[in-house]
């Protein structure tokens, strides 16, 4: 039988590697075992595996007898180690119960602390601790947490009861409540539970424990966990582990404390301890943002100009123990660690460690610094940075020279800049964002229920909470800009207005956040384009050393081409010429061409387009000098260019001198039932060769012109779209070759160029061997290949694909991340058959998947020569290609 419950602490030897495996014991459980194993002070406990969770959920929420027996035995291990018994009325063992998946999912399930308290054991805690107030406070916390998390009694009912009790006594802060006050509150809390549930708060400690285990398992399928999984591509089949651990208390007076810390700054990456703590407090007080936590180090406190003493100053000995642990953990894990600790009467206890979430900026700095420190090598540094996170750095930042109307300031919790309309709740944020509006979610504090609104918002502002609050942690994870703990912000939900400093604002007003300084500004502040410099540039150079595939870009304007080059694009993989047709200066000519009744009419219109296209291509060749440029001939269904509405028809009629009725009749004739499978792609070239002829002429004339100007000729790669048969390509290749020959003869020049095709229909992949006889290169158009292989319209998929992903039918949206199992087979097959015919066939991908790290890893396996991605994705693709090469 494979073990499903693993103990840690109390001298347990972790000989079974499963006990330190995140997949089996979750991140939290595995790291607790690992920390205990290297001799760090970890309260004893046990972990129930993720496998057990998966089994429990599959088998209809039943616990097996084996599990019950294993848990009983593991509990005995804790009891023996701490010398207390669970449920003992004189000196009870209390435990915490926490979830812990393979990757951290902040806020998926709240922790239950102080489990094991009841009306009897609370008396035991009074005598054992010698602190009556502490014991009753612990009991009321337990009832509140357990009722909220396990029994589903709403949190606010308890909060309100507490507020009323405080008001009645004239208290402002919780610390003013005495032992007997807390005892009364416990009574009230129990009454609330009984009223809500029609049964008393459970007194049986075993029932408490199993209730909590059940709640953790069930929380894996809670709505918020599902949303989090969807946003972070976490498979539903992983399950969560459950960690049960002996309690240690940070709320046993002024020599006790609790805190969270990072071994380096998770926002900037700076090598400085970074964290927050609270004296005489219990676990969740720090993250919940209810009491404002204090700085960990003296330097940080002084920098912020804060008064309350840092832990370094207030508890120097415990702080030194902690600093020693930081050093040890970084050396052991060779990465920045995110830590939870408690000091109980002067003694430090470690409750958690994990690789800390970080901003992209911090990830880059840490990776580069750690190489310099000799902690990791270049390859590890490359593998350490999440390519998708780079997206955060590839967006505009606030113009440092722009005027700022600063309304107030908070903590710089997650960098970046964002402007948008104020929204005061998550649902509104989601709704307004869906309508295309940029919104800033403003909350007193965020909770896991807000996650969809946080995702929809461009930025997040909270009035309460520190740098490690829920909002800050989640925002950093998502790469959203966040300003937290802005105490000058007060919100009135009734009138849906807010005050920032002395200014009144209302929902819908536009503000700007600077997540790097904490500034909150009125209106929209102008931004500047991002650049690739510093640590970012350094890591990219390392990545380039290790990647095999080239990275090109999909671009068609000189500005995009320029930007892509700055981001390191090594050529253009797809220039979609139709985008040039939409330009205001030529749309009339395009429409005239489409609506013409015969070839002569089309040629007349194409005549007007030729110089414009030639100029487009010349500009691109100039910007991309020295690099390959793949230009795709016209692809989309023609109706996309047709006039919309009477006004546009009238205007066109005026310009080209053909009656509106005639134009409308032609438009009707062009109507297609299923345009994506209709008269598009190379079918246009077959039926109206003069269109492709004009485009080919424009390409070669532009190439000659640029060769003249630069003294160095570009190498155009002419690409034919939507080919299904060899014959189609043969006809069109001849057309391009003939046109090239004519132009080159006219110019008296020679020029290297290539003709190739997109592989974007299943038949093309299947017949790739034959098609390669006519093609010098293939570019996999995985957008259309996905559409045609799955039989799913790419334009309509958004409406029904989400439920497909939620139900696990597709692990991810197949238009975002390649369906490797299915569509991937066609790519593999197309590449193999093509290369069998032509060994030097150049292979690339230019569908959206060319910028998706998982798809890029697949392209590396297939052995493609390059991937092509949109300009902003180029750095992501460079890093992902390096990671793929290193992983291979
Ligand atoms: C494709 O189909 O993958 C492709 C790149 O072409 P488009 O998206 O323009 O159809
Ligand atoms: Mg296509």
UniProtKB/TrEMBL annotation:
Keywords: ATP-binding, Kinase, Magnesium, Metal-binding, Nucleotide-binding, Pyruvate, Transferase. Residues 25-60, 65-371 form the Pyruvate phosphate dikinase AMP/ATP-binding domain. Residues 437-518 form the PEP-utilising enzyme mobile domain. It comes from the Bacteria. It holds the Pfam family PEP-utilizers_C. InterPro entries: ATP_grasp_subdomain_1 (IPR013815), PEP-util_enz_mobile_dom (IPR008279), PEP_util_AS (IPR018274), PEP_util_C (IPR000121), PEP_util_CS (IPR023151), Phosphohistidine_dom_sf (IPR036637), PPDK_AMP/ATP-bd (IPR002192), Pyruvate_phosphate_dikinase (IPR010121). Residues 533-884 form the PEP-utilising enzyme C-terminal domain. Signal peptide: none annotated. It catalyses: pyruvate + phosphate + ATP = phosphoenolpyruvate + AMP + diphosphate + H(+). Its EC number is 2.7.9.1. Its cofactor is Mg(2+). One of its GO terms (molecular function) is pyruvate, phosphate dikinase activity. NCBIfam families: PRK05878.1, pyru_phos_dikin. Catalyzes the reversible phosphorylation of pyruvate and phosphate. Belongs to the PEP-utilizing enzyme family. This is Pyruvate, phosphate dikinase. It comes from Novosphingobium rhizovicinum. The lineage of its organism: Bacteria, Pseudomonadati, Pseudomonadota, Alphaproteobacteria, Sphingomonadales.
């Amino acid at each position: 039988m494979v073990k499903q419950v693993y103990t840690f602490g109390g001298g347990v030897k972790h000989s079974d590697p499963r006990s330190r495996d995140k997949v089996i014991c979750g991140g939290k459980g595995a790291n607790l075992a690992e920390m205990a194993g290297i001799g760090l002070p970890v309260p004893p406990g046990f972990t129930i595996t993720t496998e057990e969770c998966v089994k429990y959920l599959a088998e209809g929420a039943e616990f097996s007898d084996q599990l019950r027996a294993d848990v009983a035995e593991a509990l005995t291990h804790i009891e023996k180690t701490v010398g207390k018994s669970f449920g003992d009325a004189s000196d009870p063992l209390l435990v915490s119960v926490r979830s812990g998946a393979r990757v951290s999912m902040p806020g998926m399930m709240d922790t239950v602390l102080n489990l094991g308290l009841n009306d009897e054991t609370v008396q035991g805690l009074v005598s054992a601790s010698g602190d009556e107030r502490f014991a009753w406070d612990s009991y009321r916390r337990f009832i509140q947490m357990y009722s909220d998390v396990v029994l589903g009694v709403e949190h606010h009912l308890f909060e309100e009861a507490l507020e009323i009790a405080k008001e009645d006594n004239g208290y402002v802060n919780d610390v003013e409540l005495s032992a007997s006050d807390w005892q009364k509150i416990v009574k009230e809390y129990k009454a609330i539970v009984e009223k809500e549930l029609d049964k008393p708060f459970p007194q049986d400690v075993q029932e408490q424990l199993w209730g909590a285990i059940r709640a953790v398992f069930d929380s894996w399928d809670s709505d918020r966990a599902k949303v989090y999984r969807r946003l972070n591509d976490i498979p539903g089949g992983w399950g969560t582990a459950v960690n049960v651990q002996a309690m240690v208390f940070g709320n046993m007076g002024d020599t006790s404390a609790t805190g969270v810390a990072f071994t380096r700054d998770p926002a900037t990456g700076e090598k400085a301890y970074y964290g927050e703590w609270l004296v005489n407090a219990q676990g969740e007080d720090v993250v919940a943002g209810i009491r404002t936590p204090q700085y960990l180090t003296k330097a940080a406190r002084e920098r912020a100009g804060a008064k309350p003493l840092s832990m370094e100053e207030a508890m120097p000995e415990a702080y030194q123990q902690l600093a020693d642990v930081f050093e040890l953990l970084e050396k052991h894990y060779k990465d920045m660690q995110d830590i939870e600790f408690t000091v109980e009467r002067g003694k430090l206890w470690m409750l958690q460690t994990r690789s800390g979430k970080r901003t992209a900026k911090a990830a880059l700095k840490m990776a580069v610094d750690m190489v310099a420190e000799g902690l990791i090598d270049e390859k590890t540094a490359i593998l350490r940075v999440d390519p998708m996170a780079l997206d955060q750095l590839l967006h505009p930042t606030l113009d440092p020279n722009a005027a700022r109307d600063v309304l107030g300031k908070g903590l710089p919790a997650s960098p970046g800049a964002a402007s948008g309309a104020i929204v005061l709740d998550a649902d509104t944020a989601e709704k307004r964002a869906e309508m295309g509006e940029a919104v800033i979610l403003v909350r007193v504090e965020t909770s896991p229920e807000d996650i969809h609104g946080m995702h929809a918002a461009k930025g997040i502002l909270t009035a309460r909470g520190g740098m490690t609050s829920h909002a800050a942690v989640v925002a950093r994870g998502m790469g959203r800009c966040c300003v937290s703990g802005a105490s000058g912000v007060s919100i009135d939900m009734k009138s849906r207005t807010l005050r920032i400093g002395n200014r009144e604002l209302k929902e819908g007003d536009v503000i700007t956040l600077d997540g790097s300084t904490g500034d909150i500004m009125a209106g929209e502040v102008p931004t500047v384009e991002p650049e690739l410099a510093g640590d970012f540039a350094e890591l990219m150079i390392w990545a380039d050393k290790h990647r095999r595939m080239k990275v090109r870009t999909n671009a068609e304007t000189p500005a995009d081409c320029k930007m892509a080059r700055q981001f390191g694009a090594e050529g253009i993989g797809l220039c979609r010429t139709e985008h040039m047709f939409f330009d205001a200066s030529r749309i009339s000519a395009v429409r005239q061409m489409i609506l013409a009744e015969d070839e002569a009419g089309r040629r007349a219109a194409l005549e007007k387009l030729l110089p414009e296209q030639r100029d487009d291509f010349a500009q691109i060749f100039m910007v991309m000098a020295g690099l390959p440029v793949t230009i795709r001939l016209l692809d989309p269904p023609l109706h996309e260019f047709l006039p919309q509405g009477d006004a546009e028809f009238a205007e066109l009629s005026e310009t080209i001198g053909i009656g509106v009725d005639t134009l409308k009749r032609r438009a009707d004739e062009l109507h297609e039932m299923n345009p994506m499978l209709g008269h598009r792609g190379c079918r246009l070239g077959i039926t109206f060769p003069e269109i492709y002829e004009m485009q080919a002429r424009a390409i070669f004339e532009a190439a000659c012109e640029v060769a003249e100007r630069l003294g160095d000729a570009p190498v155009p790669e002419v690409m034919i779209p939507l080919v299904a048969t060899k014959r189609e390509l043969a006809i069109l290749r001849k057309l391009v070759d003939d046109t090239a020959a004519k132009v080159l003869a006219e110019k008296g020049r020679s020029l290297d160029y290539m003709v190739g095709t997109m592989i974007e229909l299943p038949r093309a992949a299947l017949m790739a061997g034959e098609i390669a006889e006519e093609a010098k290169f293939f570019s996999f158009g995985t957008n259309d290949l996905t559409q045609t292989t799955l039989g799913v319209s790419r334009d309509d998929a958004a409406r029904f694909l989400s439920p497909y992903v939620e139900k696990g039918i597709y692990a991810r949206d197949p238009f975002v991340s390649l369906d490797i199992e299915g569509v991937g087979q066609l790519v593999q097959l197309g590449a193999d058959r093509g290369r069998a015919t032509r060994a030097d066939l150049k292979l690339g991908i230019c569908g959206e998947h060319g910028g998706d790290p998982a798809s890029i890893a697949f392209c590396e396996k297939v052995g493609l020569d390059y991937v092509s991605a949109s300009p902003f994705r180029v750095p992501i693709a460079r890093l992902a290609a390096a990671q793929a090469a290193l992983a291979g």
